[in-house]
Each structure stands twice: as C-alpha cells, then as structure tokens.
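Table S2 (text version). Query chain:
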Amino acid sequence: MEELTGLIHDHIREKVYYREALPLGLERDDSIIRRRLRQKMEFIADDVAALAEPTDAELQAYVHAHPDTFRRERRFTFRQIYLNPERHRDSLERDTAQLLAALSQAGDQADVATLGDAFILGHEFEAVADSEVATLFGEPFAKELFYQVLLKRYAIVVQRP
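Corresponding structure-token output:
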C-alpha cells in the first residue's frame, strides 16, 4: 500500500510540475523534449500508417467512386494547315481540294509550314489537351479530330466560316 501511495504522489507531483513549467516556457529550446516529442510523433505516424494501409479492394472501390479524379484528358499531337476564308473567299473549295491532293501525294513528308496560310498559333501542336483543342479551334473541330484519330486516319477537318 505504501508503494501505491508513493506512485500516486509522484504522479500528482509530475502533473503539477508539468502544468507550472508550461506557462514558464520551460519546454522551449530543449533538445531532450524536442527529441521525445519527435519520438512520440514517429510512434503516432507509424501507428496511423499501419492502420491506414488500404486493401486492393478498398483502392478499387475508391477509384470507382471517384473516376474523374483519375481520368486523364485525351491529348493530341497534330499538324495543321490553315486556309484563311477571307483570302480564299471564292476559291476555298477548290483550294482545299488541291491541298488535299497535294497532301495525299506527299504523305508524311509534307511540310505543313510551307502549305496554306499563316496562322497565329503555328502549324504544329504537340500533346495538346482535348479541352484546349476545343478552346483554340472550337468543339466541332475537337470532336472531328478525335473521331479521325479513332479511325486511325489522318485528320482532315475542313471548317467553314
């Protein structure tokens, strides 16, 4: 019984000293206390990490519940030849047909920078997100580009003004 009374008195003394030490700031700039707090935080982190390890089934369920978080937007790499409708006003259909014929003949060797009219955004686009294609060229262009890529064809998209 005497031993138990001693433990209780020691515990109370510890609590009182601790409460009195905090307002005095005695815990600050103390490497032993910092080390002990770090040690306690590492124990907590290890325990939380062990508890938080999800199973494959839980991960799969989370992915299915939040598909947009993990969905990557389509990206396109393409070369463009622009025919300015203002410049080709009456001959746009004919000039487009001639351009398509020249492209068919040249194949992959066609230098798009030398064909068509100047375009402020350039002629080559690499890994451009689907939404950015729609913003730059319009939704109909983006959809047609996607369908042409699905068909594994060269994308020939003619936009009328």
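Notes on Table S2: The first helix runs from residue 2 to 24. The chain has two domains: 2-67, 75-150.
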